[in-house]
Amino acid sequence: MIRKLLKFFTTRKVVVGAAILAVILAFCFLPPSLVVFPRNIALTFTGMPASTQTITWQTGRYSSGSRVEYTKVTDTLHSVREGTTQQVATDRGMITVHSVQLTDLEPATRYQYRVGDGLFWSSYHTFTTAPAKVESFRFLLFGDSQGNSYELWQRTLKTAYARNPDVAFMMNIGDLVDIGLSYDQWNDWFQAGQGVINTIPVMPVMGNHETYTTEWKIAQPLLYTGFFRLPSNGPKDLAGKVYSFDYSNVHFSILDSQLQEEAEWVPEMLASQQEWLKKDLAATKKRWKLVFIHRPVHHNRPSDGDEDLRDAFTPLFENYHVDVVFSGHDHIYARSYPMVGDKWTDEKGDGPVYITTGRSGKKTFGRALRKNWNTVYYNPMEQPNYLTVAVNNHSLKIEAFKLNGELIDTWEKTAD
Ligand SMILES: [Fe+2]
Questions:
Q1: Is the dihedral of CA 256, 259, 263, 267 positive or negative?
Q2: 136 in Cβ contact with 391 (< 8 Å)
Q3: What is the mean pLDDT of residues 106-110?
């Protein structure tokens, strides 16, 4: 009898254990379109950073709602905000992108939040709103993070954030992923960023690789535009790709340099951006003006190119006194002398400074060359790099670091 009972329970334990294991494995290896728990949470700004916070996350195609529970970390009562959903078709099936903009938040305040549908919730995360008044702040800037894996991007991102936990937000200069229409690469990118991009906002710039398919053809960047919620103040035909926002005393203008890839769908994209940028820069009263464009208008490739971008934008950068134009694409770190047209004198000259930001992922570019207008040039072949930008009313300070913490460049511009 005892032996029978023992056998019964042993058999049952094995069955129950196998069932639990099967459920765990099923949850771990569900195709993206059947995922029920929220994942790939990211914060962005779509409104005033002092009073709003936009939160985006993903689930599979079947979802019963979008909800954010949030509270000041000093409070116990939760508020709930319902969000919107968008179905995004990917190469791994249909998924749902959830989005909520929290409004009426208090400035300079730390909030705790979780996202879900009411049944399946994320764990709790935090974010901090911007101060209401102009104050000094810092942000992180990353060059191209693209690659066939995202472990190195994760190391660069997490190392930079661990060394600079006070940063208000981060930016990525484009070519976030190598294959922009590959869901798996985006999933790896977002997963690598958890702990950072669900704690501080990430403001991305679109790169050419965001338009590439798994067959290396060009397509509309529907995963990039589907996954990020960004300010809608850009030209209508470039929604989600061209935008501007303010943080403290800085105006940020983000452009789309993918003429070669996107002209088929947006034939007037250069004229459209010229017209928009002119109005955008003319309207701002902010002390500092920074522009972000993936392809550099002054590049470090062996052959010439991108004259159309240079001709279209550099007069506007100069006329409206843009301080720095940041770019990516060439995977090197380079800082130019201040430039007017294609002329420069020395470090104290007039005109914007052009900085190419290097690489934060695993992809390198060995054929890049130092150009005459570069006062600093470094090709990060052996390890990735990142930038910190510190701003107050009197100065703008940019520093570039290797992953191992070694300083590549430091540059400061003081107010006139
Ligand atoms: Fe690129």
A1: positive
A2: yes
A3: 97
Find the 78 Cα to ligand 1 centroid distance in Å. Answer: 43
Cα 306 to the center of its chain, rounded Å: 23
User: Taking 80 as the threshold, does the pLDDT of residue 21 lie above it?
Assistant: no
Question: Could you tell me the distance, in angstroms and rounded to a whole number, from the CA of residue 329 to the centre of ligand 1?
Answer: 4
At a CB cut-off of 8 Å and minimum separation 6, what does 282 contact? 320
Higher pLDDT, 1 or 152: 152
Ligand 1 centroid vs 348 CA: distance in angstroms? Answer: 30
Record the tokens describing residue 223, joined without a space: 């995963």
pLDDT of residue 23: 61
Burial 279-308 (b: 16+ CB within 10 A, else e): ebbeebeebbbbbbbbbbbbbbbeeeebee
**Ligand 1 center to 330 CA (angstroms):** 7
Cα(14) to ligand 1 centroid in Å equals 53
By residue count, the chain amounts to: 416
Domains and CATH numbers, the chain: 33-128 (2.60.40.380), 137-414 (3.60.21.10)
Q: In this model, does residue 41 exceed pLDDT 90?
A: yes
Q: What is the pLDDT of residues 147-202, one digit of tens each?
A: 999 999 999 999 999 999 999 999 999 999 999 999 999 999 999 999 999 999 99
More confident residue, 266 or 16: 266
If pLDDT is split at 50, 70 and 90, which confidence band does 3 have?
low
| Degrees, nearest 5: CA angle 326-339-379 | 50
Residue type, 164: N
Q: Are 110 and 126 in contact (CB under 8 A)?
A: yes
CA 154 to chain centre: 13
Joined together, the tokens standing for residue 224 give 């990039």
